[in-house]
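Example 4.3 (complexes with small molecules)
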Amino acid sequence: MAATIFDESCRACPRLATFLDDVNGRYPDYYCKPVPPFGAPDARLLIVGLAPGMHGANRTGRPFTGDHAGVLLYQMLHKYGFGSRDHSESADDALELIDCRITNAVKCLPPDNKPVGAEINTCNAFLANELRLLPKGAVVVALGGIAHRAIVKAMGLRQVEYRFGHASLHALGAFQVLDSYHCSRYNTNTGRLTEAMFDGIFAQARELLDK
Ligand code: URA
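Answer. The structure with uracil bound is encoded below.
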């Protein structure tokens, strides 16, 4: 694959491409394409999520926009100076990210929110190219174990040497990866990820970048 960070017309994963066609048939107003990263490529904070949610990013065309998973994320970004407002409604609202970018390990909506290994691997080339654009000293927040492992793989590193753990910090060459449990509805409703825990992640990211 060429050194591109995103391809709106990508249909490299047959299961995902077929699923998007199917969802588009059922929801003709939805975006239903690979969802592009949001924010400037040279931002020093990169958030890596899992994949677009059916009625969120897959509907609006912007990561974490329009569903539960984005509510707390955009609040935190605003609180720590990475967003111009505390919520994200649609791809053409007035929100601007400040020194921050949001991407997903898998750019297309997966059935049941679960991409399979081959899909994560196929999409990994985009993530690898995106990570190469990071400025020195950048901080990457990995939302969940899948995003974390996709980052380690994209950097060509051994998973056993970089284990996922909430609030774990890993030095990966020119940047650091800060792990967080994913801000999914399931994790926030069950208390696996509390607001205080998520706040701590962004407080730490801010501190690392301000050093
Ligand atoms: N929306 C996204 O864009 N990514 C996620 O990981 C979850 C919801």
